[in-house]
Design goal:
single chain
């Protein structure tokens, strides 16, 4: 099995590309989706988050707006939040890998692959990338997004140029969906050949 780490900065189109891998029959582990489950109603991380960041949860799980405000207000808070979430996500990732061990190729969709050290757990890396102008337009079109929040998010992420330099594959998303899908198909074919599948 070849494990492909899929990453990209905010607004680069990583979720769209992950869906293209899944549509092509490649098992995809979505780290963000696992975080949402951990923080949702009856989520396994809710009690620990409430203990560390009081008044950020309810019966509905974590209030992401309140948690974001608590984390942004404290420079050490993001590391404390990661210490709660990362081990739980790692357990889910290992279960996914065991469940798909017969597949020639799997994708680990991890937004902070480089920043959180996840690159050490994959065989190859694909970075989803678009121009800074396209990225900014996509992100600022999101409900509730502000230029200041966008800049704060970017400050916590490795620059796109560095991600591309460290990648085995760069998947461009600034053109048409079909152009991106063609690159995804090429990456799958290349890696399946390498895996012998």
């Amino acid at each position: 099995m070849i494990t492909l780490g899929l990453t990209g900065s905010i607004g680069m189109g990583k979720s769209t590309v992950a869906a293209m891998f899944a549509e092509a029959g490649v098992p995809v582990f979505d780290a963000d989706a696992e975080v949402h489950k951990l923080q949702g109603p009856d989520g396994a991380a809710v009690a620990a988050i409430e203990a560390e960041f009081p008044d950020t949860t309810s019966d509905l799980g974590v209030n992401r707006t309140l948690l974001r405000e608590a984390v942004m207000a404290d420079p050490t808070a993001f590391a404390r939040l990661e210490a709660i979430l990362h081990p739980a996500v790692a357990d889910k990732r290992e279960a996914f890998l065991r469940a798909n061990r017969a597949a020639p190729l799997v994708v680990l969709d991890v937004p902070l692959l480089f920043e959180a050290g996840g690159w050490r757990h994959v065989d190859r890396i694909a970075v989803v990338s678009a121009s800074a102008e396209v990225q900014r337009a996509r992100v600022l079109a999101r409900p509730g997004m502000t230029a200041a929040r966008f800049e704060a998010i970017l400050a916590r992420q490795l620059p796109d140029s560095e991600k591309r330099a460290r990648a085995d594959f760069v998947i461009p998303t600034g053109g048409t969906l079909e152009e991106t899908r063609a690159v995804v198909r090429d990456v799958i074919a290349c890696l399946r050949d390498q895996a012998g599948g």
